[in-house]
């Protein structure tokens, strides 16, 4: 025996309304149409669904149970429509973003907070890695967007869609009360310092060593190195070690306990970009996040 789910939905409305006319007004149909539906359903189940000659309508135990099932179907259908609507607006689903550790630690994670606040039904997966690993994940559909220095990839790569976000440069970073902040800094001073380094897989590690050698620091002594952005920041914050970081990784108001040494590095500015696969149709959620990130970056660097 098969029962039309729509009949169960209508039955639940009738039971809740208490009258056929009240239910008809809610559903947008007529009282005779609902009367015919009840007779059809009673014939199908072989039993009465309402006690005879009772006003307001009083369901039998079977009628009450079938109405409960109809109510569940009605709620599920309404929820499905709501989810589809949320998905079309970019408010539902899973968004997967990949970025180097320091972008994850600072700019990207901060931008995600505001994005999630307006979309409680979504989930964001943030994957910290370096470009080769991120590109493999992107190519195998394991992430949706890469955020990072455009120089990490070939901007002429026809597989990738590049969208510049902002220009940045590397700086020498120390703790906020570091002794070098109050004295003249020369090549000898930098050569005497111990440094916190980055992963051998990191473009930042290469940039750091190149810049220091161009400044005359020949024997770079690394006291610590890690792939963890949090660990690097904590070591610098709690010691006299120096490191080189992207400028965006240091808060301008010094609330993170870090400072930038007033000495320029012989390195050019770099473009931080969003990268995605050129031949992949972007979901509404991806499009929404890209727009959100553009606005976030614009507001942050305008402040």
Protein model, in words:
The protein is α/β, with parallel strands linked by helices. The chain has three domains: 5-88, Arc Repressor Mutant, subunit A, CATH 1.10.10.10; 93-167 and 272-302, D-Maltodextrin-Binding Protein, domain 2 (3-Layer(aba) Sandwich), CATH 3.40.190.10; 170-260, 3-Layer(aba) Sandwich (D-Maltodextrin-Binding Protein, domain 2), CATH 3.40.190. Helices cover 45% and strands 20% of the residues. The chain has helices at residues 5-17, 20-27, 31-45, 61-88, 101-117, 131-139, 187-192, 203-214, 229-237, 284-302, and strands at 93-99, 122-128, 145-149, 160-168, 170-175, 194-198, 221-226, 243-246, 258-260, 270-277. A five-stranded mixed β-sheet has the order 2-1-3-10-4, with helices on both faces. A three-stranded antiparallel β-sheet has the order 8-5-9. Strands 6-7 form a two-stranded parallel sheet. β1 (93-99), α5 and β2 form a beta-alpha-beta unit. α1 crosses α2 (20-27) and α1 (5-17) packs across α4. It is elongated, with a radius of gyration of 31 Å. The model has no long low-confidence stretch (mean pLDDT 89).
Question: What labels describe this entry?
Answer:
303 residues; alpha/beta; D-Maltodextrin-Binding Protein, domain 2; 45% helix
Cα separation of the termini: 68 Å
CATH class of the largest domain: Alpha Beta
Sheet with most strands: 5 strands, mixed
The Cα radius of gyration reads 31 Å
CATH architecture of the largest domain: 3-Layer(aba) Sandwich
Mean pLDDT: 89
Spatial order of strands in the largest sheet: 2-1-3-10-4
Beta strand %: 15-25%
Alpha-beta classification: alpha/beta
The shape, in one word, is elongated
Give the topology string: H per helix, E per strand: HHHHEHEHEEEHEHEHEEEH
CATH homologous superfamily heading of the largest domain: Periplasmic binding protein-like II
Number of helices: 10
Helix content: 40-55%
Any idea of the CATH topology of the largest domain?
D-Maltodextrin-Binding Protein, domain 2
Provide the low-confidence segments as ranges.
none
Number of strands: 10
Number of domains: 3
């Amino acid at each position: 025996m098969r029962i039309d789910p729509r009949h169960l939905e209508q039955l639940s409305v009738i039971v809740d309304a208490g009258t056929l006319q009240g239910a008809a007004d809610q559903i947008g149909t007529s009282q005779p149409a609902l009367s015919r539906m009840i007779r059809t359903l009673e014939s199908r189940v072989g039993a009465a669904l309402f006690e005879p000659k009772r006003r307001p309508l009083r369901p039998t135990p079977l009628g009450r149970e079938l109405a409960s099932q109809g109510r569940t179907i009605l709620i599920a259908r309404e929820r499905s429509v709501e989810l589809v609507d949320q998905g079309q607006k970019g408010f539902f689903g899973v968004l997967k973003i990949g970025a180097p550790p320091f972008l994850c630690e600072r700019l990207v994670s901060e931008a995600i907070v505001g994005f999630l606040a307006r979309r409680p039904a979504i989930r964001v997966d943030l994957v910290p890695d370096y470009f080769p690993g991120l590109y493999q994940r992107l190519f195998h559909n394991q992430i949706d967007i890469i955020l990072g220095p455009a120089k990490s990839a070939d901007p002429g790569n026809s597989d990738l869609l590049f969208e510049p976000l902002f220009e940045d440069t590397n700086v020498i970073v120390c703790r906020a009360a570091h002794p070098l902040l109050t004295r003249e800094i020369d090549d000898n001073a930098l050569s005497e310092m111990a440094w916190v380094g980055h992963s051998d897989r990191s473009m930042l590690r290469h940039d750091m060593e190149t810049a220091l050698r161009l400044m005359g620091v020949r024997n770079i002594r690394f006291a610590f190195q890690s792939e963890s952005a949090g660990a690097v920041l904590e070591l610098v914050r709690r010691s006299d070690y120096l490191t080189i970081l992207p400028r965006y990784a240091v808060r301008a108001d010094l609330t993170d306990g870090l400072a930038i040494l007033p000495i320029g590095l012989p390195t050019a500015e770099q473009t931080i970009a969003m990268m995605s696969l050129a031949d992949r149709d972007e979901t509404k959620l991806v499009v929404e996040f890209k727009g959100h990130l553009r606005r976030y970056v614009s507001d942050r660097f305008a402040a």
